[in-house]
Amino acid sequence: MASASLQFFAFILALFGVFGDIAATLLPNWKVNADVGSNIITAITQMQGLWMDCTWYSTGMFSCTLKYSILSLPVYIQAARTTMVLSCILSAFGICITTVGMKCTKLGGDSDSKSHACFAGGICFILAGICGLVPTSWYTREIISNFLDQTIPESSKHEPGGAVYTGFISAGFLLIAGVIFCTSCFNKQQGGWIYPPKQHHFPSEEQESNAGYNLKDYV
Question: Considering the chain, what is the average pLDDT of its residues?
């Protein structure tokens, strides 16, 4: 029962991780630049994401431009696109597989098949967490290096946006969920190895052998 509750908790974490992963992939605020200028009324907030660049004006206007050209983008943005999409796909596969393998569901067949399904889903979550952690770390490193570069003007410097933090948290949720699923299945298999099934003895055969021995004594 405790293992089933732990798997359910890991499944909830994985759901939050999947939704956060998708949101971080689509949000345009991976890096943000707030240019207040001399007048706060004309303040402009520029946001750059993986798929579009957006500009928000203090007057309420909001405009976005899609990044159609792939080859013109920096390498870290191209890598972030690929790995974040891969993370979303792997986490979605993990949700489907662990739904079949969880103890609280009636799918997946016998206990061994459900255990293998949970282990495969946990591996998918771990890989999805790694794929989500790599681009967010690389993207943050590029933002910090550009921010500390003295040759870049202040108007062109950016700070990490909300999508980066969402990606970090989602990757952490996926990694924790994957470790819990894999550990629960491993503990179950290890328990089976430590305590092997008992061998059943058949008393009828022993009684027959003892009866034959007693008859020989009287001959």
Answer: 81
Q: How many whole angstroms separate alpha carbon 57 and alpha carbon 61? A: 5
3-class SS of residue 151 = coil
Closest-CA residue to 126 (of 101, 169, 94): 94
H-type alpha helices, the chain: 2-26, 75-101, 111-148, 162-194, 203-218
Q: Is residue 161 part of a domain?
A: yes
Total structural domains within the chain: 1
Q: Residues 147, 5: contact at Cβ < 8 Å? A: no
**147-157 per-position pLDDT tens digit:** 888 888 877 78
Read off the CATH number of the domain in which 171 is found: 1.20.140.150
Within a domain: residue 215? no
> What is the three-class DSSP state of 201?
coil
Q: Which of 83, 56, 57, 53 is nearest to 69 (CA)?
A: 53
- The answer to whether the pTM exceeds 0.90 is no
User: Would residue 122 count as lying in a domain?
Assistant: yes
